[in-house]
Automatic annotation (TrEMBL):
Top-level taxon: Bacteria
Protein name per its UniProtKB record: AAA+ ATPase domain-containing protein
InterPro entries linked to this entry: AAA+_ATPase, ATPase_Atu1862_pred, HerA-like, HerA_central, P-loop_NTPase
One Pfam family it belongs to: DUF87
SUPFAM superfamilies: P-loop containing nucleoside triphosphate hydrolases
Record-annotated AAA+ ATPase domain positions: 24-191
Organism field: Sphingopyxis italica
SMART domains on file: AAA
Amino acid sequence: MKTSIEIGTDSTGQGVHINVQELLATRLLVQGNSGSGKSHLLRRILEESAALVQQIVIDPEGDFVTLADAYSHVVINGGDYNEREIAAMGARIREHRASIVLSLESLDIEAQMTCAAAFLNALFDAPREHWFPALVVVDEAQMFAPSVAGDVSDTVRRASLSAMTNLMCRGRKRGLAGAIATQRLAKLAKNVAAEASNFLMGRTFLDIDMARAADLLGMERRQAEAIRDLERGHFLGLGPAISRRPLSVRIGATQTSTRMGTHGLMPLPSAGGEDMRSILFTEMEAPAQPRFFAPEPEPVAASEVLERIAASEGLHEDLDAPPVLDILEAVEEAEQSDAVVIAMLEEMLSDPESAFQPEAYLYQDFSVRCRMQKLKKVPLDLAAFRRRFALAKGGVFDPSEPRWREMLAVADRLPHDMFAPFLQIARAAMDGEPCPDDDILGRAYGSRSPGRIRRLVEYMEKQGVIVVRADFGGRRSIGIPELGLSTEAE
C-alpha cells in the first residue's frame, strides 16, 4: 500500500514527500506568520492523504469546509450543537472512521475552546476497539493550547490545554496523530509543541519565534535569518517523516480552496460622493441581500449528522446491519443497566470523600462495581461517567426525568465540572430553600478552597446563568433568570 504523499518540490525541482505511516507515529508542527501559507500547506497534506487515512480537522475559521465538495468529509458546525451532542459525535466518529471537519467559525473564542475540548476528549476516551489511526489537524493551535492565560476563564483554558496535551502527548497509542499549525511558537504551550518530531517552518519575523524555529530545525542562530526571508508558500522541513536534514519546500497546488479565495486588489466602486452617501443613508424598504455569498445552510439535526457519519463507514469497510431483535434487546438491556447505574451512583456518593476523589479513580471504582453487578460491559465511558457523576452530585440521578429538563438545558451552558454546584443552587430555588452555603457548593465542586468557590460563583454570574443578590445583612440569595426562580436568602 502507498504510504507516501508529495507535498511540493525542493530547490532543485525534485518532489518532497511525507511518509504518512511515519507521520502517524511522530506528529507534525507547522509554524508561520499570517499569510505564510500554513492553511494551504495543511490543505495540501489533507488532500493528498485523504484516501490513506481518516482525517479529523478542528477548523476555527471555517477554511476547510470545502474539502467536503471533493472528498468524503462530513462538515459539523459546532455552533449548532451542545457539548453533549458534540461529545457523542466524537465517539461515533472514532467508531465509524469518518473523516470530518469541525467548523467553529460561528463561536466566540471561549466557546471554540470548550467545544474543541469536549470533542478531543471524546476522541481520546473512545474504547480500545475503536482506536483506529486518524490524522487530527488543528489549525490556529495557539488558540486551543495557549502558553499564557488570556481573556478566557481559567476553567476553559485548562480544559482546552489538557485536551490538546492529551492529543499530542498520549494520542499516539490511541491512534490519534496530531498535526498542529500556529502563527507563533511563543504563543503555543511548550509541552504541546515539544511532542512533535516533524516540523515545517514558514516565514516569521519576530526574533523569539525565529530562534525557537531554528532550535527545532537544528540550525545555528546565525542561520535563523533564513526563516525571515522565506517566500509565501515556502517552508523549511525536517523530521523522520520528511527529511533527516532541513530542506526547503515549495508547497504544491491544491484541488480545493477556501470559500473566500485569495484576497487581492480590486477596483473601487464607481459611485461618486453624493451617490455613495445616498446608498449608505437612504432608508431601504427591505434589508439588502448578500451579494457575494450564498445564504448560510439551515442547522442539521444532531441525529442526521450521526446518520451521515455512520453512512460514511461504508467507504472504509462493509459491515452487516444488526438485526432488529438485537437492537430491541440492546435497548431493553440499556434500560435495565441505567437502574443499576443510578443505584451505584447513590452508593458511591454515600461516602462524603467521594466528591473530592480524582475522576480516574472514581471511574475505576465504578467499573469494578459494574463487574460486581455482572453487567456485560461498563454502561458508561469516561466522558459519560463524568457527566452522570456531576449530575448525581447535584442531586439529579436520573436526567431523563421531565422535571429536570429545563434545569439541565441551562446547566449545559457550563463546563461539566460546574454542573453539580449549579444544580445544587437550582434545586434549592425549585424547592424554595435557602441558598446552599460554600461548604455544600465546595463538596459539589470537589474543592475545599473558599477562594475557588467564590470564583466559581463569579464565573457562573458572568455567563448570565445566575444572579447573586446580597442584602444589607450580608445574606445571599441566588436567582436563575432563565427558570424564573430564586433561592431564599441565607
